[in-house]
Amino acid sequence: xxxxxxxxxxxxxxxxxxxxxxxxxxxxxxxxxxxxxxxxxxxxxxxxxxxxxxxxxxxxxxxxxxxxxxxxxxxxxxxxxxxxxxxxxxxxxxxxxxxxxx
Length: 102
What we know:
By secondary structure, the protein is mainly α. The chain is 55% helix and 8% strand. It has helices at 31-39, 45-54, 61-80, 85-101; strands at residues 10-13, 17-20.
């Protein structure tokens, strides 16, 4: 697992292959990487189509995805200040609402 996957940390090698080059890795759930990517704009539809073609979305994906994004917002709020507060609270409310409607 990469921990901090977002579009800015890739390079094109001979304009054929995309390579991720960041040593901050750890073992975790594969969906966790998608959260930090989406927090900073995400990738192309082609990327997600290929990704989910290899690893299909499991039931509950959207709520887990929000939970993983929430982790990153809380972390950024802690490290970088209150500009992340509003979205953090919004995600908390969305997850609480989703929990009560399932």
